[in-house]
Write a structure and sequence with these properties.
The chain has helices at residues 2-18, 25-41, 44-54, 63-68, 95-111, 132-143, 158-167, and strands at residues 74-77, 81-85, 90-93, 115-118, 150-152. It has 168 residues and is mainly alpha-helical. The longest helix is centred in the N-terminal third of the chain and has 17 residues, at 2-18. The model has no long low-confidence stretch (mean pLDDT 90).
């Protein structure tokens, strides 16, 4: 993302260099503004402020929401796998995927709805990788939590997650 700002700065500096001394003020001022914007956009506090202001904040689904909308089953979308987790002697879900899974278990327990997990290997995965849905089932068993009702473990992307889970 910084490439466009750097490119704009170089073009503006080139413009200022070729211009006469009096006309060089505008490109130098624009170059300074571009540099300031690139610096601001690289600051963590600005990134957090922009995400709060510009991204819609979504509230968590509650068991009451599920009952009101007459949901028939919970589908948990995969979020990544650590294929080699030495502490577990094999694969485990990434922190984000585990968080999704645990919230799905919570919702399933509260609402008494069946639960599915969708996640295969992904386009960049190798044939010897364990599909994400199988890793989720292993993690649930390791934690002593209820098993999944369905596992969709053939998908390679989100589109296939939806299509293959609908078939289940």
């Amino acid at each position: 993302p910084a490439t466009s700002g750097l490119l704009a700065s170089f073009v503006l500096l080139g413009w200022a260099w070729r211009s006469a001394s009096q006309r060089a003020r505008l490109p130098l001022a624009l170059c300074g503004l571009t540099t300031l914007l690139m610096w601001l956009l690289s600051c963590h506090a600005v990134a957090i402020w922009l995400s709060v202001q510009l991204l819609p904040q979504v509230s968590a689904v509650t068991p009451e929401d599920l009952k009101r909308q007459q949901v028939q089953a919970l589908v948990i979308l995969g979020g990544g796998v650590r294929q080699q987790a030495p502490e577990y002697g094999g694969p485990t879900l990434s922190p984000d995927a585990m968080s999704r899974l645990l919230y799905g278990v919570h919702l399933s327990h509260q609402s008494q709805l069946p639960m599915a997990y969708t996640g295969g290997v992904g386009w960049a995965g190798t044939s010897d990788q364990t599909p994400e849905a199988e890793v989720a089932a292993m993690d649930l068993k390791r934690l002593g939590l209820p098993a999944l009702n369905w596992q969709e473990n053939q998908s390679r992307d989100t589109r296939e997650n939806a299509r293959l889970t609908a078939q289940l």
